[in-house]
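Project standup — Tuesday

K.O.: blocked on the structure for the chain from last sprint. Re-posting the sequence here as requested.
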Amino acid sequence: MRNFSKFVLSLAMVAVIGLLGAKGVFAFNERTIICSGGSYFDKYGPSQYWYEHSGYGWCNKTSPGWCENGQCSDQSPYNGVSRSMWKTYSGCSLSNYARWNMGNIAQWSYWYTFVPNGYSTTTAAPFSITYNGGSTYNFTINQNAYNNRWISLPTTSNYYQVMNTWLDDDTCESPSTQIGFDETEICKEANSSSAYCPGSHNP
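H.V.: unblocked you, prediction finished:
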């Protein structure tokens, strides 16, 4: 029995070390945050239309860090992750888009995205999430209405086994309109106002 307990403890330690070693993912209690500079974030489309801005976003803001419910970005172990956000410009057809790999965790979770205080001027950022083995929920977020805030789904509903988040540039607004690509998050809680979910929510 003693040897079995040691074996279980060893497995738990391996799981924790593996999580902390994954660049771009940070788990804090019931939260899993996917950083836009890590290996769980993929950009697609012509590289000349991707623009990087340092010092913006939740994960990558170093001084002062953003704090919500006592949880601060400057306490996060983002070693080796680019300290920046990404943007592209609006078009009337799909050109540049990105995917956040949410980890395919088999649980009910609330979803959030962080809107930085710059380079996010679209009024209709076209997001999609895939969940529950391949179902899709499409929605838009008015990034221009928020500054340095976590934003929840328009429905404030939770979804089972959120797998990926997608965002693209097909908003058909002015060519100077900017679509911001920053952090996304899933949060396993009883409701969207629980202690370890972000403090700011859509109505």
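K.O.: great, moving the ticket to review. Residues 24-187 form a domain with the Jelly Rolls fold (CATH 2.60.120). The chain has one helix and 16 strands.
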